[in-house]
Specification:
The chain is of the alpha/beta class and 330 residues long. Helix content is 38%, strand content 17%. The strands form 4 sheets. A 7-stranded parallel sheet has the order 3-2-1-4-5-6-11, sandwiched between helices. Strands 7-10 form a two-stranded parallel sheet. The longest helix has 22 residues, at 87-108.
């Protein structure tokens, strides 16, 4: 039996493939779109059984080529660009493709674990997995929101596992290909290496400079939660996947600067010292993001904990330090 990972050459998908490898699983079918070919680098140190283009895979699924051969599908593949304006493409790629896989997994009684997003909450100040708190601000968030509504209806009638993970701000290894959509920590690392300073948006939404708070979650923790549910096929539902803590962008900046300094054998600095040495610059908030930007996020982990996941999540300080060390070695 095979495990399928869609978006396997992407950020979260490749980390799931690596995590499966680390427990000895190699019968993995990696599915992706390598039009942007550099993503292949995320799979170079991974062991897989086969690679299929996303369109080839969905056609084979629909023609019965994999009937009875797949144990579980981790559906991580999606367009995650929150500034994408082609709604037709977004809905076909994120919503319709997911529906085809959901239907097939239902018919085959295959575990289906998929990527939802905290973007479903939009400008809400409450982050519970409940309909009244969901109001996406962009078409990416809407594509995820709409699929979650279908899943909610299916959960009561489905005999096999369906699990949706509302990822918050994920950062960590294997996101180099994402460019401008990469995490703040990734951008800060490269800014500090290239310019000797990091940059943050000026204050907005009532927050001071760099004071906006988000729930930043390390990708290693994301992979652990995914595998926990793989190991517990009787558990289904839609779950927030963050740390349950909101930390400021300033925290990310400080952690990245100090991580880079540690690579050079230099001591850690406080936020005030970093500002005093002009190692942190605040820049104007982009017009293109106004009205489409989540100023604050903090995952409510009540349902995740009730489902039995008990492990602690890395703080920004812990996760960014680990990530910067990895970036420095890669």
């Amino acid at each position: 039996m095979y495990i399928v990972v869609t978006g396997a050459a992407g950020f979260i998908g490749s980390n799931i493939v690596k995590a499966l490898n680390e427990r000895g699983v190699t019968k993995i079918i990696a599915v992706d779109n390598l039009t942007k070919a550099d993503k292949f680098k995320n799979l170079v140190d991974c062991e897989i059984a086969d690679y299929l283009d996303k369109e080839d895979f969905i056609q084979r699924i629909q023609h019965g080529h994999f009937d009875g051969e797949i144990e579980a599908i981790f559906h991580e593949g999606a367009c995650s660009d929150t500034m994408e304006t082609d709604g037709r493409y977004m809905m076909e790629n994120n919503y319709r493709y997911s529906l085809i896989l959901l239907d097939w997994c239902h018919e085959q009684e295959v575990q289906f674990l998929y990527a939802s997003s905290a973007a479903t909450y939009g400008g809400s100040s409450v982050f519970k997995e409940e309909r009244q708190y969901e109001a996406p601000l962009n078409v990416y968030g809407y594509s995820k929101f709409l699929f979650d509504q279908v899943v909610r209806k299916r959960l009561a009638e489905n005999s096999s596992q369906i699990v949706g993970f509302r990822y918050f701000n994920v950062y960590g290894p294997r996101e180099n290909h994402k460019g401008r959509m990469a995490s703040v920590a990734w951008h800060h690392f490269h800014q500090f290496r290239n310019e000797g300073k990091v940059k943050l948006f000026e204050g907005s939404h009532g927050y001071p400079d760099g004071g906006q708070e988000r729930d930043f979650v390390f990708v290693g923790d994301v992979a652990k939660v995914n595998l926990f549910f793989l190991d517990h096929p009787q558990k289904s539902g839609i779950f927030n996947l963050g740390t349950g803590r909101a930390q400021s962008f300033n925290d990310v900046a400080v952690s990245t600067v100090n991580g880079c300094r540690a690579l050079e054998g230099e001591s850690a600095l406080s936020l005030e010292e970093i500002r005093g040495r002009s190692l942190l610059e605040y820049v104007a908030f982009p017009e293109a993001l106004k009205g489409k930007y989540q100023a604050y996020t903090q995952a409510d982990l009540t349902r995740l904990r009730e489902a039995g996941y008990e492990e602690a999540f890395a703080s920004v300080e812990e996760g960014v330090a680990q990530y910067v060390k990895w970036l420095g070695q890669s």
